[in-house]
Write a structure and sequence with these properties.
By secondary structure, the chain is of the alpha+beta class. The chain contains 4 helices and 6 strands; from the N terminus they run αββββαββαα. Strand 3 and strand 4 form a beta hairpin. The longest helix is centred in the middle third of the chain and has 7 residues.
């Protein structure tokens, strides 16, 4: 794959939700995070687009990312790439797996919560 193809990105639809990013697969994995448990996408508050990770947002967006403020924890902002269930920020922060389909989420993602959530 050429650099130009990688930068152009690719989109998929999971359930009824379009996910934007680099090399996104059918369960929201991307070129940056593509392990078995890398099955979420996050809706960025700055553009309201679902993207698999911060690095994908940086690569495809024409603006700086913004984090979800603490007072908006009830916003649906996390998509399970396995079953297309949309979790609120509060729900996502409280679980280790999807509450609907029980697909395990990557525990390493907790190290990056400060990139997405205040």
């Amino acid at each position: 794959m050429t650099d130009a193809q990688q930068q152009a990105g690719s989109d998929i639809v999971v359930g009824a939700v379009r996910v934007h990013g680099l090399l996104v697969d059918e369960q929201t994995r991307c070129v940056h995070y593509h392990g078995d448990r890398d099955v979420i996408a996050i809706r960025f508050i700055c553009c309201h687009r679902y993207v698999p990770c911060f690095a994908c947002h940086e690569a495809i967006a024409d603006h700086a990312p913004r984090r979800w403020p603490a007072h908006e924890r009830d916003a649906h902002a996390v998509l399970c790439g396995v079953c297309a269930h949309e979790l609120t920020v509060a729900e996502y922060l409280a679980v280790e797996a999807c509450p609907r389909c029980e697909a395990a989420f990557n525990p390493g993602c907790r190290l990056h919560h400060d990139l997405y959530f205040d």
